[in-house]
Fold:
Amino acid sequence: MTPLTPLTPRLSVVVPVHNVEEHLGACLESLARQSLKDLDVVLVDDGSTDGSAGVAREFAARDGRFRVVGRENGGLGAARNTGVAHAVPGTEYLAFVDSDDVLPSRAFELLTGALDKSGSDFASGNVLRLTGGGRLQQHPLFTRPMRSTRPATHVTKDWSLLLDRIACNKVFRRTFWDEHSFAFPEGVLYEDIPVVLPAHFAARSVDVLQDAVYYWRFRDSSITNRRAVVRGVADRTAAVLGVSRGLAGTPEHKKRYDESVLREDLWYFMRVLPEGDAAYREAFLERTGEFTAQVDPEVLAGLPLHHRVKWHLARERRLEELLGLLEFERRSPRTHRVRGLRRRTAEYPPLTAPLPREVLALAPGDLPLEARLTGAEWRDGVLRLTGYGYIRNLPARARRHALKAAWLRTPDRRALPLRLKRVNDPSITARSGQQLHGYDWAGFEIAVDPARLLTESATTTWKLVLGVLGHGVARRGGVGDGGAQLEVHYLDEHTRIVPVFAGGRLQLNAERVQTWLTGHDSRDGVLTLTGETRTRASALRLGHWHSEAAIQVPLARDGERFTAEVPLDELAAVRGRGPVRAPHGESRPADAYSVQLVEPDGKRLPVAAPPGLPLGRHAVPGGRELAFTVSAWGNAVLTDQLPHAYTESVTWTDNSLVLQGLYGGGPAVPLQLRRTGAEEEEVELPVRCADGRFRVESAYEALTLIGEGEWQLSLGEAPVRIPAAAHPVLPAPRAIAGRDVGVRRQSHDHLVLVVSKGAFSCGS
Structure:
């Protein structure tokens, strides 16, 4: 039994419990194993009718930090308020946890530790979504607000925190909670909003952590996941309306919040209007009409076009047109016709009555450049690029509508014009995902002579810029990733061209390589690296990608040759640092390190991984391995990871798809194909493992059972990867039962299986 806590624990945790017998044990176990041991956990049995109360009492009997308080069923808000009332008086901090969710082991340590340093009123951390299959994914709601760790900030300094509106990823300073007499509304859904949003504005400062501190279990049965219900839209509107009216004394804050509500909170209910019945649709119009009636007209006028039009229809209660527009946009997202030459406006086919010109007015951002690279191939020493570029909602059905120019530009604005060939490609229209416009003539082909990219500098970065003129509108910009498979290309032993997507846009780096790796080995607890350098470097540095930690050791030099020895225990000491994203925060599937040489003045130099460098896989304690791989930039990367499968060949036989390669994970486990999205799905294929190798052979009949989409491949707990030396072995897709099936790279060296209708599409 865990010893009783002191009279005044540091943190009180309130856990409402109601009919969650299946998941309650996992939740309580995650609380019990918190690295912050000084807890007071109040389990509020909210009138459970299953075995939940018994699970809670049994756990409390084993751990003196847990107490059970019973009450009649009153809902989540009432149970939380009861828990606060029963918390040990004088605790410094207060937290809330829902009884079907799970916490990583360092969650409370990280949150309270941030508050100890900053003195902020509450701390908030990242949230991962826990799926039915036990997988963790970044919750999209928290991608922006938790993009980085930011101590002592505030919602008025960072408006993305308006999206951080749940209570369970936070630790509150108890004096702050009591000072403002916070309490959850009772008997309603969305009880977090009336507490969390006012707390954001009332706080003197807030700590934001990129680390995951909460695993939010996704359950399809949850009423909050079924939005087309009257109670949902009524309670959500009441919640946001209360917050909005509470900000009336600060008009600029109110405008910001109201805009967020229309773009996020109530937009969720707008999108499901077609799924709702007559009662839901009437409730939506009535409730959202009440909210928009008190919104400043400037807020409505400043919404993006596709929001602005729909909210105007809702305010005028033009339900049939609104439903028609939502259905039209389901088939053709962000699509409309363009009318006028000088004062251009949007025209939507489903609308039967006019809208004010100011509602339909187009800004330059409403006609953006859509440019993607779909292919990149080195042929006869020349880089041949294929792709497309068009101005969204301005059709390119004819050659005259597709005037284009392309050039490469350096940061110092040196320009290199390129010869561009316009291409008619009907698949471009199909890829656009809409049915109103044709973009067949948006294709292009460009040939780049690498010799023109070399300059006197050791490294020159060229960004590809595409210019498009159509229907009197000109746009120019970078070219994004449309599924092109990029390869580092060496012109000679020490000169290379590196095509990469940086910031989502294609750039070509012309580099003279000064430092490169020639070998690696591990024995007797030491990792030994050998290489060559034409610099004055005196040390080797391994920089941990996930934190600021680094390991630096001296070089032994023999002319241009060097040797560096890294103690393996130093790598193990760094493992797991940085943002917590692995299950329960215990270990990360992979800890990556950049490999650099350091000159006497502190300048860091990347270490290239030239063609022919063998894949390095060295076993280390804990069932993990050290692997040397090649980054998308052509440089060496060291990874401390769970055993990965590395594919050496992918081939089609007359009746099967065959993958073969290296795997040090022990006994055979099934190959998992995982498709993520609105509905997560998994498929397993048998694997044969022997002597550190694996083989997967899937008959065509099995592939016909796999649904369309992109399927990520993993073996054990790790993704299936393909080392740079094997990138050229990926074969062309094959038509099977009327569909195209192929294997391609994603994230540079991860394998995915792509199943699509008609012509094979690499995706974007």
Q: What stands out?
A: The first strand starts at residue 11 and ends at 17. The longest helix spans residues 230-246. The chain has a mean pLDDT of 92. Residues 650 and 659 are 5 Å apart (CA to CA).
